[in-house]
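To whoever is on call:

I kicked off a structure prediction for a single chain this morning and the downstream step that reads the tokens threw a length-mismatch warning. I double-checked the sequence; it's 162 residues and nothing unusual in it as far as I can see. Pasting both halves so you can look.
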Amino acid sequence: MSEQLEVKLGKLLRERDWTIAVAETTTGGLISARIVSVPGSSAYYERGVIAYSALSKREMLGIDEEVMDTYGAVSAEAACEMAKGVRKVSGADLGLAETGIAGPIRGRSPKPIGTAYVAIAGAEGVVCEVFQFDGDRDAIRNAIADAALQMVIEAGKTIDNR
């Protein structure tokens, strides 16, 4: 059995002496729950924010209303702003954010169910990836969490965050 992503992430963060803060929408705290399931995670996990509504994104993360109005809550621009915002408000070395559509109802977004954007903000800037997942709501939420953790692990291998 391979090592769980949250364990790999914890090892990376401890090796680099980095902290992480997470801003979640679609996953509703799932990413944070997985990170803190690892013993010793208090050494690197700074905080998690569940910013589900547009108002919470503005109030808790400082997202510009114009970004939300122009690009929508499910967009690369929103994910990047969320990652930068959670990094800024927390003082963590890395800000990780996700926004997406888990269904079964699409809501106001024209994007298909299963669309997700994951962004990581660090000292060198922000990277964002778009994903398209299949399955029911729980499968999509779990896939987003997996992708987010994997993305930080991969990025952490190549970036110098200090």
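Update from on-call: the warning came from a stale cache, not from the record. Cleared it. Sanity check on the structure: The chain has one domain: 5-158.
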